[in-house]
Each structure stands twice: as C-alpha cells, then as structure tokens.
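Re: beginner question about structure tokens

> Can someone show what the tokenized structure looks like for a real chain? I only ever see the sequence side.

Sure, here's an example I had lying around. Input first:
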Amino acid sequence: MSQENVGVVKAVFASASRGDFDGLLALFHPGVEWVEDPRTPGAITHRGHTEIKRYFESMPRYWEKLRIEPERFVDYGDEVLALARVTTHAGRGGPEMNRPFDAIFTVRGGKIVRGRSFSTRHDALDAAGLRE
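And the corresponding structure tokens:
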C-alpha cells in the first residue's frame, strides 16, 4: 500500500510540473485539506477542490517560472514525505529563488486527503519523525 501512496504523490508532482491542474485535482479527494506552513506570511488552509484549484491557478500570477524537482519520497503508513526543490522566477524581472519545497501528503483510497507544506526541511523531517 505505501508504494501505491508514493506513486500517487509522484503523480501529483508530475501533474504540477506540467501545469495540469485538472490532472492534479483528480488525485485529490473532494474534501482535501492543504495546510500551508503557519510561519509563512499569509499562510492559510485550503479546503476542497475549488480552493485547491484557485490556489494552484494563482501561482502563475506571481511566478513567471515555477519548477518543482522532487528529490526523495519517504513513505510511512498513510503518509508520504516529499522532499523537493522549487525554483521560481518572480514576474516583472524579479529574482530567481531556489529553495526546499517539502510536504507531507496523507493518502487514503488512492487520493490525497491532506497536505502540509513546510518552510524548512528541518520542520518537514521533524513533523515526519525523521532526522537529517
């Protein structure tokens, strides 16, 4: 079952990388909850397909380029820790940024039911009960 969950999370990253929001939503349960790191300014919790779709579709307004490259997936039960790097280039000639993008996905019945993103790799590993 855990390898199936990893496969679902890998598919999320593949859909996001292609900008395939419909494919992305198909991987999320209709009652999905996405929790942004509360330490991030303006962070909120998104609930359901409508809010998740609005969240992902808003990204091109802020980022001229956005690339997410998965580095490692760690499965443990119903959850998958995804360790990745995100490279963004702000619109209007803003700077390029490259930083970790780490999240824990809860998978049930082949669908993402909850996601939590973290500001630092340390926080993500700590939430997963792992160490660097």
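Each token stands for a local structural state, so reading them left to right follows the chain. Residues 9 and 66 are 18 Å apart (CA to CA).
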